[in-house]
Write a structure and sequence with these properties.
With 249 residues, the chain is an alpha/beta fold. It contains eight helices and seven strands, in the order E-H-E-H-E-H-E-H-E-E-H-H-H-H-E. Helix content is 38%, strand content 15%. The protein is globular, with a radius of gyration of 18 Å.
Length: 249
Amino acid sequence: MAETKLDILAIAAHPDDIEITSGGLLIKMAGRGRQTGALDLTRGEMGTYGSDAEREKEAAVAAKIMSLAFRRNLGLQDSAVEYNRENKFKIARVIRETQPEMVVLPHWQQRHPDHLACHRLGFDACFLAGLKKIELDGEPYRPRKIIYASYYRNNEYSFLVDISEEFEEKVRAVSAYKSQFGDNDDKTFQEMLENGQKNIFHPGTTIYDSMHTRNHYLGLLAGVKYAEGYSVKENILIDDPQKMPVRSI
């Protein structure tokens, strides 16, 4: 029996990936009493800023802000995550241990090779974890649902999640990564926008600029202030089309 039975497990390549792409969803679901967790494949040691030890501490702080019930790092080599059987098994073991009903993976359109490898490894691991005869510890288990978090390359979404009430907490979780984005303790979000200390994208653009622009744009598409975008590979079944939110005209 798993020590931590999860409702939702988000899997990503590096510490802070989950916070940036799915932080709002995880905070929202934790607020509704769901058991949420995060699995980071690497420690992010190849990043321009910070050490793996710093990022490990920052990830723990971010986990508390998001009210995660579970967080683990597999310690794979950053910028060299390989799509192989060994890594599939490492993820599959965590899936068997935590038994999440839903898994959140990176979208399949990616620039960073680690993100793409994470997408492929995560999907295969969800399948392999359910095989009875495979050489894995624990009882066979397969998540019921896989959704894919939007990154920056895809611009089509299966659905949007309203994170208007969770956005500020999402920002706080991202700001826990001081080595990456600067020391923003006690700053308001507006101050972070105006005085971001580290530009990890192109000159003059901070993570807070990016989050505000992207999540606000997605929110506008659905008539809310902030939203996150997700995709699925299967059809979405609606019981009562008349109750679908978002006006057509």
